[in-house]
Amino acid sequence: MKTVSIVTVNFNQPQVTEDLLRSLEEVNNYPDLEIIVVDNGSTIDPVPAWKPRYPHVKFIRSEKNTGFAGGNNIGIAQATGNYLFLINNDTEVTPDLIRKLVAQLEENPRIGMISPKINYFDHPKMLQYTGYTPMNYYTARNACIGQFEEDRGQYDSLSGETGYAHGAAMMVRREAIEKAGLMAENYFLYYEELDWCERIRKAGYEIHVDLSALIYHKESVSVGKRTALKEFFMNRNRILFIRKNAPGLTFFIFCCYFLLTVAPRNIFKYIKNKEYSFIPVFLSAIAWHFTNKADSNNLGFNLKR
């Protein structure tokens, strides 16, 4: 039986992470598991208290917040499994989840990454993810299939190849990581898993979803509060994703679309909503690309603000 390394990242949510660890204890039909928790620079270090309570878990402490990709990459570097299952700490697993995903990877060596169906934890019969549509590289738009719909099994026939895996739960073949490399840490937040999917696909693998496997995600159904951090990285990284993955002419057309359509619309929205402080944040997200290379590690945002 192949070893599965489960990697999750904690940032100032110790209770949420402990809930995940408890749910993992119910996975008794797949014994060969390695569980790794990376604390990503939490204000209060929870690792000393966790170690005696969870002796079977490998805990790693990062003294600084390295972002979604950085935290997961720290865990991947310490993982020994044939398959690596990266899951958000605000998820809870179902008992046969891991067994089903492993079975798909074992059966089809072309699969480099696979995600399960994701439903909302607080609304267990509401879908969050059953796959993604392909990306439109001229607009940087795609869609999450089934989100907010009641789960009646209406998308279960879509199991198989999909546009992208979901960052909340993705099992990756070790060989795919070795060929494609780790997640790009300069995204910090948002779009990094989409970029990773593109590189894994370019390395010769397919991205799949298994809708017979289910995980619950505690992400809120309502739209979360918009912050300067979110506005900056959502916009900077939308451009960065196309810059890294689209041909030159396509990127040029996207830039024209973004500057002539998206930028005026966003600025108008900020003014209409009296969110004036977001205007310089949005403009700095665009300006970053004039002064930084696509692989620059300069985040362009003060995380302490």
Structure description:
With 305 residues, the chain is α/β, with parallel strands linked by helices. The model has no long low-confidence stretch (mean pLDDT 96). It folds into 2 domains: 4-217, Spore Coat Polysaccharide Biosynthesis Protein SpsA, Chain A, CATH 3.90.550.10; 228-291. Strands 1, 2, 3, 4, 5, 6, 7, 8, 9 and 10 form a 10-stranded mixed beta sheet that branches. 38% of the residues lie in helices and 20% in strands. Helix 7 (228-245) packs parallel to helix 9. The longest helix is centred in the C-terminal third of the chain and has 25 residues, at 248-272.
Structural classification: alpha/beta
CATH C-level of the largest domain: Alpha Beta
Which homologous superfamily in CATH is the superfamily of the largest domain?
Spore Coat Polysaccharide Biosynthesis Protein SpsA, Chain A
- Indicate the overall shape: globular
Q: Mind summarizing the main beta sheet?
A: 10 strands, mixed
Q: Roughly how much helix do the residues carry, as a percent range? A: 25-40%
Number of helices: 9
Q: Approximately how much beta-strand content do the residues carry?
A: 15-25%
Give the N-terminus to C-terminus distance in angstroms.
Answer: 48 Å
Give the uncertain stretches in residue-range form: none
CATH topology title of the largest domain: Spore Coat Polysaccharide Biosynthesis Protein SpsA, Chain A
If you compute it from the alpha carbons, what radius of gyration comes out, rounded to the nearest whole angstrom? 19 Å
Order of helices and strands: EHEHEHEEHEEEEHHEHHH
What is the typical, i.e. mean, pLDDT?
96
When the domains are counted, the total is 2
At CATH level 2, the architecture of the largest domain is Alpha-Beta Complex
The number of distinct β-strands equals 10
